[in-house]
Design a protein that fits this description.
The chain is an alpha/beta fold. The protein is built from eleven helices and eleven strands. It has two domains: about 120 residues, 3-Layer(aba) Sandwich (D-Maltodextrin-Binding Protein, domain 2), CATH 3.40.190.10; about 100 residues, D-Maltodextrin-Binding Protein, domain 2 (3-Layer(aba) Sandwich), CATH 3.40.190. The chain has a six-stranded mixed β-sheet with strand order 7-6-8-5-9-11, with helices on both faces. A five-stranded mixed β-sheet has the order 2-1-3-10-4, sandwiched between helices.
């Protein structure tokens, strides 16, 4: 009887040990796709990936990296099935080398640029083209710094310089420019007294240490439109299905909740910087 009981418990213990292996095997049987995206999309895309995984029983993993890292990952054939970026030059380069499916490119959401400063700054302005902004800021904060994202690493840097050039104030501000690679370090620098700069509106809305002075009209720079594309390789069909889901109402709700805009929103052609910003990230009326 004791021998039978001992054998019985050995069988039960073996089944218990096998359960994690069986569960792991089931997970490995799931369709798996990996999404490589711009860091500004971290919050909404993480939520969307989780929702998609639960709804369609597909394992979706995400990683967020600057453009240089994205290109290296795809060139080296590392784990990536979907790429999401707003850099048209990156997409053109990858298409020309046959690394992505040219027919799969899909616009999924848009962002805007915000002119920001440190939270306690009392400055209030309406910035129009050719405004002597550098002179104004020098009177308020002598020796101020104007922080921009390094164009090789942050999309806000590319569009920020373009917007300032179109407003015809880049030349006056250039002596005060400071380019920073890391979005976190960049926002920390702006949050200090004497700090000013241009960041993505969605980043500004989440940082209580920053004050939004205004949101640039889309007409002042190329649209910040995020494009999703299938990376050539395995799991291309599941990748196409995921990209299609990104344009659905449930996915767009996640983007909108974080201050992003629907891709079909009309262009704001006003020739001045809209003043202020609501806590939800939407542009305030003048």
């Amino acid at each position: 009887m004791a021998k039978f009981a001992s054998t019985k418990w050995m069988i039960v213990a073996s089944l218990v040990l096998l359960m994690p292996l069986n569960a792991r095997a089931k997970r490995e049987e799931l369709t798996q796709i990996h999404v490589l995206a711009d860091p500004s999309l971290t919050i909404p895309l993480t939520l969307i990936a989780r929702d998609y995984s639960r709804t369609y029983n597909v394992s979706v993993s995400t990683s967020f990296a600057n453009t240089q890292k994205q290109i290296e990952t795809i060139e080296e054939g590392l784990d990536a099935n979907v790429l999401i970026t707003s850099r048209a030059s990156t997409l053109r380069s990858l298409k020309n080398r046959g690394l992505v499916d040219v027919r799969s490119q899909t616009p999924i959401t848009k962002n805007r640029l915000a002119l920001v400063t440190y939270a306690t700054n009392k400055l209030d302005l309406i910035m129009i083209p050719r405004l002597p902004l550098a002179s104004i800021l020098e009177r308020i904060d002598p020796g101020f710094s104007f922080i921009l994202g390094h164009p090789d690493y942050q999309i806000s840097g590319i569009y920020g310089v373009e917007a300032l050039s179109n407003f015809e104030i880049a030349g006056e501000l250039e002596p005060y420019f400071m380019f920073i690679q890391s979005p976190v370090e960049m926002q920390d620098a702006i949050a200090k007294k004497g700090g000013y700069g241009i960041v993505l509106r969605t980043d500004a809305a989440r940082n209580s240490q920053l004050k939004t002075l205004g949101v640039f009209p889309e007409s002042s720079h190329s649209p910040i439109a995020y494009q999703a594309v299938v990376v050539a390789g395995e799991q291309m069909d599941p990748a196409r299905a995921f990209i299609a889901y990104l344009t659905s109402a449930p996915a767009q709700a996640f983007f909108n909740a974080q201050g992003f805009e629907a891709i079909d929103n009309g262009t704001d052609d006003k020739d001045h910087l809209a003043r202020g910003s609501t806590s939800s990230g939407e542009r305030s009326p003048l």
